[in-house]
């Protein structure tokens, strides 16, 4: 790079400087438990540093995790901790880091896709990351909504406690569910520590985090994580229950957990930032408008190995289509690919046949989880449907991708 700045792999010795950089760029100093949790998941071998004469001027890391995609669980590089020092911004450091990182992932040959949450949605499409899932943020006036179904019979039992004490049941339930929940990432012990880290200086006036596990006749069938921000006005109690996660194996568990969360005494609002676009709660209450929903973006997907990624997921209808893909950054992905498959599996190979649909790798990434329709992208003029052979239906999925965490 210009100015003698070089991109190099990080080391564990770089962690304090990386942590300091992330504190500066995200306007939040990482200390104590939050920093320890970040260090526990740090993968030095997959971290890249923009080094300016010994100063860590920029950084990114690829975490080695799995992601559930339609019909499969795949290794996926989870990109995070991206930052460039304010003194070095807009000089191409991020561009150099992103290019090197994508080449490294492609050469590694283990992961066909990379995923991330964007701090600003404008940053990543230029590097081939497409907005693949959305989320609903809920701000629920809980005293004004009632569940339209009666309580489950026989009733399950709720066990409330500290998340760390209930972790083995929570993790077991999560592992059973996540393999079919598109958009969910796996969590080993380090990631549970990261997800559950609850330092007091990040609570913003709320209680510590609580957990509740739902037990059915055969054992745990779901759990919820939340905290409460207390509040009083001249009208009386006005607390806000801030729900972090609700995971349920069956409808009765889901209803019971939401009935519990919506009914916590002295609260007047229940907020939940990681709702699915097709969150069942919307169909469970008598006054859905009082759920106060707002649409936002969630996971961005980058196909690093286009044929590998397309062959690895399943399709909800038979598909036999030729896609013409543009990918200036990873030219091995560019060109025409014949995708053949359906609900049972798929294959994808290079072809000289004429294309049915032409798109950028960014738009293909957006469609990959089944949460963004290729037909809608075509209506927006981003994707070009060249023949009547439209793969939109096949690329969809029976439920929208959802998210359990921002990593
Ligand atoms: C997965 C995650 O970790 S998301 C977190 C991302 N990090 C942050 O938001 C922390 C605060 N921001 C930063 O640290 C930096 O501004 C970064 C990392 C976003 C960008 O780093 P830079 O080195 O300035 O980016 P770089 O110079 O390579 O810019 C590349 C292009 O993206 C554009 N760009 C980069 N960041 C932004 C932004 N935040 N908003 C708008 N455009 C942006 C640049 O204008 C440039 O466009 P151009 O090529 O048309 O001129």
UniProtKB/TrEMBL annotation:
Active site positions, chain numbering: 124 (proton donor), 407 (proton acceptor)
List of residues binding acetyl-CoA: 82-84, 90-95, 119-120
GO molecular function: aminoglycoside N-acetyltransferase activity
Organism domain of life: Bacteria
BP term (GO), one: aminoglycoside antibiotic catabolic process
InterPro entries (alphabetical): Acetyltransf_17, Acetyltransferase_Eis, Acyl_CoA_acyltransferase, Eis_dom, GNAT_dom, NAcTrfase_Eis, SCP2_sterol-bd_dom_sf
UniProt keyword Glycosyltransferase present: no
One Pfam family per UniProt: Acetyltransf_17
Assigned keywords, A-Z: Acyltransferase, Transferase
Boundaries of every N-acetyltransferase domain copy: 5-152
Signal peptide positions on this chain: none
Subunit structure: Homohexamer; trimer of dimers.
HAMAP family listed in its UniProt record: Eis (MF_01812)
Protein family (similarity comment): Belongs to the acetyltransferase Eis family.
Name of the protein in question: UPF0256 protein
Phylogenetic placement of the source organism: Bacteria, Bacillati, Actinomycetota, Actinomycetes, Micromonosporales
């Amino acid at each position: 790079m210009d100015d003698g700045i070089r991109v190099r792999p990080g080391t564990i010795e770089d962690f304090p400087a990386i942590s300091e950089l992330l504190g500066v760029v995200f306007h939040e100093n990482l200390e104590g438990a939050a920093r320890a949790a970040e260090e526990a998941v740090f993968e030095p071998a997959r971290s890249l540093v923009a080094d300016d004469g010994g100063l860590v001027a920029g950084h990114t890391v690829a975490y080695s995790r799995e992601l559930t995609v339609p019909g499969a669980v795949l290794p996926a590089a989870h990109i995070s901790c991206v930052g460039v020092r304010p003194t070095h911004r807009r000089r191409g450091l991020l561009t150099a880091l992103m290019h090197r990182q994508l080449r490294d992932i492609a050469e590694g040959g283990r992961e066909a896709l990379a995923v991330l949450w964007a701090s600003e949605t404008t940053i990543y499409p230029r590097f081939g990351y497409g907005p693949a899932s959305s989320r609903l943020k809920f701000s629920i006036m809980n005293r004004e909504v009632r569940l339209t179904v009666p309580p489950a019979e026989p009733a399950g039992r709720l066990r409330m406690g500290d998340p760390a004490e209930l972790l083995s049941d929570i993790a077991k339930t999560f592992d059973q569910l996540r393999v079919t929940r598109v958009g969910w990432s796996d969590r080993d012990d380090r990631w549970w520590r990261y997800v559950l880290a609850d330092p007091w200086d990040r609570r913003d006036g709320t209680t510590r985090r609580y957990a509740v596990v739902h037990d059915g006749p055969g054992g745990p069938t779901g759990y919820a994580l939340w905290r409460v921000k207390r509040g009083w006005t001249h009208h009386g109690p006005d607390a806000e229950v801030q729900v972090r996660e609700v995971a349920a194996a069956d409808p009765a568990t889901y209803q019971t957990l939401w009935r519990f969360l919506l009914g916590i005494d002295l609260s007047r609002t229940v907020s939940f930032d990681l709702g699915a676009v097709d969150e069942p709660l919307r169909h469970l209450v008598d006054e859905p408008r009082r759920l106060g929903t707002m649409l936002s973006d969630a996971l961005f997907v980058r196909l690093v190995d286009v044929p590998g990624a397309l062959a690895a997921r399943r399709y909800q209808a038979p598909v036999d289509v030729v896609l013409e893909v543009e990918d200036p950054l990873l030219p091995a992905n560019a060109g025409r690919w014949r995708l053949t498959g359906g609900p049972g599996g798929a294959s994808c190979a290079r072809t000289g046949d004429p294309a049915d649909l032409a798109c950028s790798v960014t738009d293909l990434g957006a469609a990959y989880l089944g949460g963004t329709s290729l037909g809608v992208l075509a209506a927006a003029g981003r994707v070009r449907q060249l023949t009547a052979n439209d793969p939109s239906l096949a690329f969809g999925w029976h439920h929208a991708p959802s998210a359990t965490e921002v990593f």
